[in-house]
Amino acid sequence: MTDKTPIVVMKGITIEFPGVKALDGVDLTLYPGEVHALMGENGAGKSTMIKALTGVYKINAGTILVDGKPQQFNGTLDAQNAGIATVYQEVNLCTNLSVGENVMLGHEKRGPFGIDWKKTHEAAKTYLAQMGLEAIDPHTPLSSISIAMQQLVAIARAMVINAKVLILDEPTSSLDANEVQDLFKIMRKVRDSGVAILFVSHFLDQIYEITDRLTILRNGKFIKEVMTKDTPRDELIGMMIGKSAAELSQIGAKKARREIKSGEKPIVDVKGLGKKGTINPVDLDIYSGEVVGFAGLLGSGRTELGRLLFGADKPDSGTYELNGKQVNISDPYTALKNKIAYSTENRRDEGIIGDLTVRQNMLIALQATRGMFKPIPKKEADAIVDKYMKELNVRPADPDRPIKNLSGGNQQKVLIGRWLATHPELLILDEPTRGIDIGAKAEIQQVVLDLAAKGMGVVFISSELEEVVRLSDDIEVLKDRHKIAEIENDDTVSQATIVETIANTNVNTGKEA
Amino acid sequence: MAEKAKEEGNALVKKLLSNNLTWSVLAFILLVIVCTIFQHDFLALSWNDNTGGLAGPLITMLQESARYLMIATGMTLVISTAGIDLSVGSVMAVAGAAAMQTLSHGTNVWVSILIALAVGLAIGCINGALVSLLGLQPFITTLIMMLAGRGMAKVITSGQNTDASAVAGNEPLKWLANGFILGIPANFVIALVIVILVGLLCRKTAMGMMIEAVGINQEASRMTGIKPRKILFLVYAISGFLAAIAGLFATASVMRVDVVKTGQDLEMYAILAVVIGGTSLLGGKFSLAGSAVGAVIIAMIRKTIITLGINAEATPAFFAIVVIVICVMQAPKIHNLGAEMKRKRALKAQAKAVAA
Which GO terms describe its cellular component (chain B) (predicted)? Predict the structure, then answer.
């Protein structure tokens, strides 16, 4: 393999932002016909490295050779012209256009009277067929196909522009297992046609399934380049987070179940809470110091139930009791006033307020509950920010930086700090570990356990069953917008228990099918 | 040591160059220089015993800037929420018409002033309600109010350009536009105090941060417990109220409302002042100080047009050219031009080295 000529050689890449070196002399070499993964924690510099290669950021030092020619990218167009195509985490296609128009955008077939749409769509069909996507009609509007399919269309588009390098940044984070397999099938096809693929994913299984070569980064520095097949998992994780495998295994222990004493009153007691078309009526109680997991597939209603508990959506049925008192949680303000906080799964659109600083982002919810005209005294604000920056280990430790400049995991920590600053009795965490690396994940999981130990009620929503099982006292299983089971999570319960419950329960009867 | 000092100096220069305010102030000074070349006593100030204040071209410029300061301040807050208020010019006419009409019908001058302010506030509240409660687009909502406002002003005065200059007891209003405080134009002082008060209100409470939050990400703001509707309503109400003050300034200087010309095109001036001040039309972070400087620059450009004796047909073109030049000077791309060229040269050298 080593005798291959690399298609991209990045050497000594350094990128500085005001006050911080995001990348410090990082090397990356991509070979044609290989899938290469960038590995590292949040803030390790993976995204920055990709942005250097795609021309989003200008590099301060180092060289980029594509096909042996030095390149200086002054924008994404330069990178595209050099044959580097990117499919981002959030698909960047035009949802209002048809599939074919998206695939061929900028490369439409021309006839005597301008664009020949018929030929254009035919060409799109050939490209799609090359990737085994004959089933997609190029005339269908992009918005009508699933996100997974849209991603595949984005890859087809990359093939149209004759890309030599295809960058896939977290393409699998919102896909289910089957969709991931479809994606991998196409990735293999693309790879075998001689394209170099740069792949970023937080799922280790996927890394081992699809990649040939790994480059490991930590804190903006190059650690090592290795072949995937020669590298055991614990060694890889160790290199990523700079800790030994033994230290890691400690995180893996299951939470000791919190026993509810007889006569104890729950913090939250809802009966028949629901909203038409969103989630069918649910009964639920949450006790102080308890972690309640919501398990279910994407679209099962787990997020919707969390949003109802917080008043982000208005319920249209049911009763809501807080510490024995009837309440009407109709909007987030009322929820926060009643000491309920909700951390969204959609960090970018509903979580961070990008241009505001870390400090402002941390204080804004507390400020909102106090009212616009009662500013938090500076001393108190400083203390709060200082406390959560340290407790949650937010990096970089500079609260005056705009939050949008932080990595995903650190943004997540700031948001958790935001909700903790309001001193909630019930904290709803929706996918708090999505799209963040193992190190930050473990930190956040530990925070959940610590909070419960201090007496907070926590709702933990995650698509990763493993962490739900490990952290929860009770698990509410949801399917097709119904709550289908409540599982007391003792030693006999495993991921398999939940998968079986989901698979075998009939939604309408609540009985085993 | 010397090197370090030099480095720090460079950093300071860099920071200054990338600051919009620097370029605004520079543009202002340039305009003053141009005017001084054409009219050598442009900077001259004299004391006028009749008015009890300073006199000179700069003073009349400040007098005119007061109205721009008011509408630019309101516009800044509205634009920060990713909205726009096209109705401010018309609100000026409505408020001015209300003041002049009531005054000429014998209403006490203070009551007239209050009526004018109330009318402006009411129109602002209607804008706010339409945008926040009904979720209408700010552009459409305030565009309609801009058209409707002109109509309202005409209805109030029955289509006349009501003149209240001869009405007894109108002195307080006259003073508002033409009077002096410690020798400085009263309307400018009042406008400045209001800008500072709004600034303090924004920055000493959480109002400014919440306005910015709503402008940056409305849904995320709602999830933090902020009530975006309340914020939106508030900024349009403030904008309407400040436009009414601007309307008083504009009409009181001649004690006459011109239902067609009062406040005409001034929504554009306000938007330009905000842009010159460095607040993005996409919403988010805002700078009241920047907008205030922008407002004074607008007044200065108008003064320059008069000083240079540019004929009426060419004034819009001149105005546009100056504004574009200021915006170009502020563009980060222009600031990076030098570094960009350096990088390109380095790349070429690198390519040559590889080829060799």
Answer: plasma membrane
Burial of B337 (0-12, 13-18, 19+ CB in 10 A): exposed
Q: How many domains does chain B have?
A: 1
pLDDT computed for residue A247 by the predictor: 55
Would the CB atoms of A72 and B343 count as touching at under 8 Å? yes
Helices B186-204 and B207-216 cross at an angle (nearest 10°) of 70
Query: B199 lies in a domain?
Result: yes
B343 lies in some domain: no
CB-CB contact of B277 with B24 (8 Å)? yes
Contacts of A68 in chain B (CB under 8 A): 354
Range of the domain at B92: 20-309
Of the partner residues A72, A332, A372, the one whose CB lies closest to the CB of residue B223: A332
Residue B317 belongs to some domain of the structure: no
Task: Flag whether residue B219 sits within 8 Å of chain A, measured between CB atoms.
Answer: yes
Nearest C-alpha in A relative to B219: A350
Residue to test with chain B: of A353, A356, A380, most B Cβ within 10 A? A353
| Chain pair A-B, CB pairs under 8 angstroms | 90
Chain A residues close to B351, C-beta within 8 Å: 69-70
Measuring CA to CA, which residue among A317, A372, A450 is closest to residue B224? A372
Q: Which residue has the tokens 């003064």?
A: B303
Q: Is the peptide bond before A375 cis (omega within 30 degrees of 0)?
A: no
CB contact (8 A) between residue B223 and residue A312: yes
Using a CB-CB distance cutoff of 8 angstroms, which residues of chain B are in contact with residue A70? 347, 350-351, 354
**Interval A195-212: pLDDT, tens:** 999 998 877 778 889 999
CB < 8 Å to A368, chain B = 206, 210, 224-226
Domain boundary assignment for chain A: 8-96+141-249, 253-339+424-513, 352-422
Q: Which of A70, A344, A354 sits opposite B216 (nearest CB)?
A: A354
Q: B226 contacts in A (CB within 8 Å)?
A: 333, 364, 368
Domain A253-339+424-513 classification at class level: alpha beta
Query: What's residue B354's pLDDT?
Result: 67
Six token digits for residue B68: 């721009």
Average pLDDT value over all residues in chain B: 90
Of the candidate CATH numbers 1.10.4160.10, 3.40.30.10, 3.40.50.300, 2.170.120.20, the domain formed by A8-96+141-249 belongs to 3.40.50.300
Chain A residue numbers touching B343 (CB-CB < 8 A) = 58, 72
- A423 contacts A273 by C-beta, under 8 angstroms: no
Contact A353 B354 (CB under 8 A): no
Span A88-131, pLDDT tens digits: 766 678 888 899 988 888 888 888 888 888 999 999 998 888 88
B4 Cβ contact list (under 8 Å, min separation 6):
none
**Which residues of chain A have a CB within 8 Å of the CB of B205?**
372-375
What's the complex ipTM?
Answer: 0.85
Cβ B207–A373 below 8 Å, yes or no? yes
The dihedral sign for the CA sequence B218, B223, B224, B225: positive
Q: Which residue of B has its CA nearest to A69?
A: B351
**pLDDT, greater one: A169 or A511:** A169
Q: Residue B101 falls within a domain, yes or no?
A: yes
Q: Position A126: which residue type?
A: T
A209-249: pLDDT as tens digits: 999 999 999 888 999 999 999 988 778 877 887 765 555 55
* CATH number, domain with residue B25: 1.10.3470
pLDDT at position A343: 95
Sheet of A196-200, strands arranged across: A69-71, A61-66, A8-17, A20-30, A221-227, A213-218, A35-39, A196-200, A165-169, A84-87
pTM of the model: 0.77
Over residues B40-50, the pLDDT tens digits come to 888 888 888 88
Position A90 scores a pLDDT of 63
